[in-house]
Amino acid sequence: MKVIEVNKDNFEKEVLKSDKKVLVDFNAEWCGPCKMLKPIIEEFAESNDNVKVVSINIDDADELAEKYSVFSIPCLVVIEKGKEVKRNVGLISKDDIESLIGE
45-61: b or e for each residue (b if 16 or more CB lie within 10 Å)? Predict the structure, then answer.
């Protein structure tokens, strides 16, 4: 499965109403660690069909970053049935993402 770009217009449909767990990657173009995490997130998304992976650029969706209290990036938030269940701030490995998801 590919990483889906999400913004305030499609957030509810893609994340809150998803029938799968959702890994939300809050990031920004100017963020070095975010750039390093991007290929790891893409690899995770390609190898995990049972988890939806979405990317949110905080510069384009600052209201979502504010709603989820994202103060540092990269920030990964796991959402299940519309509710946040876990979160991680900073660069992590694919194995750590799998642990975060609970797969």
Answer: beebeebbbbbbbbeeb
